[in-house]
Amino acid sequence: MSTATSHYRPVAQQRGEETRARILEAALELFAANGFDGASTRTIAERAGVNLPAIQYYFGSKEGLYRAVVEQFSQNLHAGVAPIAEYIRRELDVGQPSRRKLIDLLCDMLDVIIALILDDSVPNRECRQKFFARMEVEPNPAFDALQDDMVRHVCQPCCDIIGRLIDRPPDDEKVLLHAMTLIGQAKIFCGWGTNRVLRWETIGEARIRAAQLVIREHVQAIFRSTRGR
Fold first, then answer.
1. What is the C-alpha to C-alpha distance for residues 67 and 216, in angstroms, rounded to an integer?
2. Which helix (H) or strand (E) holds 148?
3. Are 108 and 8 contacting, i.e. CB atoms less than 8 angstroms apart?
4. Which tens digit of pLDDT belongs to each residue from 179-228?
5. Contact partners, residue 65, CB within 8 Å, separation at least 6
6. What span, in angstroms and rounded, lies between the C-alpha atoms of 77 and 119?
7. Quick check: 120 and 204 in contact, CB under 8 A?
C-alpha cells in the first residue's frame, strides 16, 4: 500500500465523521423545531450543507436518522447516570444502609439528573430541550430505547431506595408513584416554561446547585420520618 493511499483513508474517514456530525446537528435542530413528521430530509440536508443521498448513505432513512439522534441522548444519559446507578446498587447489595444514607443516595441520583438537564455548556442545549420535550408528547418507537435506559439507570435505582425507605417492594405502586413524582421534579427543568418563570437566561453552577438543594429539601421532608405510611 502506498503512503498516499494510507494517508487518504484517515482523511476520508475524518471527513465522513464530520459530515455525519453535521447531519445529526441539523436533524436535531429541525426535529426539535418541527417534530418528526414536520422535518423533511431535504430540509435537513440543506441545513447540513450536504446532498440528499448523504442521509441515506449515513443513516439509511429518515427513521434511521431520528434513531441516531435519540441514540445520542441515550449515550449522554448512560455516561451521566451509569456511575451513580452502579454505586447505588453496590451500596444496597452490601447490606442495609442507614436511613440517612438511603436519603443521601436518592438525592445523589436526583442531583445528577438535574445537573445533566441544566448543564448549559452542552452544545445546542436549547434544541436538546425542545427535542426531549417533543419525545415526551410525540410517541415514536425510537424513543423506546431511551425510555428503557431511563427505567434501568434512573427509575429502578430510585425505586430500590424508596422501597427500603417506606418498607415496600420496589415494584409497589406507591414506590413507583414516589419515584415518578421525584424524577418529574427534576425533569421539570427540561421545560421552556420553567426557565421563563425563573427568568434564567443563563444557568451556571450556582443555579444548578440551588435547584439540587430544593429537591433535596423535598426528599428529606418526605422520607425523613415516613416509612410504610
1. 34
2. helix 143-150
3. no
4. 999 999 998 887 767 878 988 888 889 999 999 999 999 999 999 865 54
5. 23, 24, 27, 41, 44, 55, 59
6. 13
7. yes
Share of the chain above pLDDT 70, in %: 91
CATH code that applies to domain 66-223: 1.10.357.10
Question: Among candidates 217, 28, 8, which has minimal Cα distance to 110?
Answer: 217
Mean pLDDT of the chain: 88
Other CB atoms within a 10 A radius of the CB of residue 184 amount to 9
Please give the grid coordinates belonging to residue 178.
Answer: 414516589
CB 186 within 8 A of CB 216: no
CB-CB contact of 103 with 220 (8 Å):
yes
Domain ranges of the chain: 1-60, 66-223
pTM for the structure as a whole: 0.82
For domain 1-60, say whether CATH 1.10.10.60 is its number. yes
pLDDT of residue 228: 45
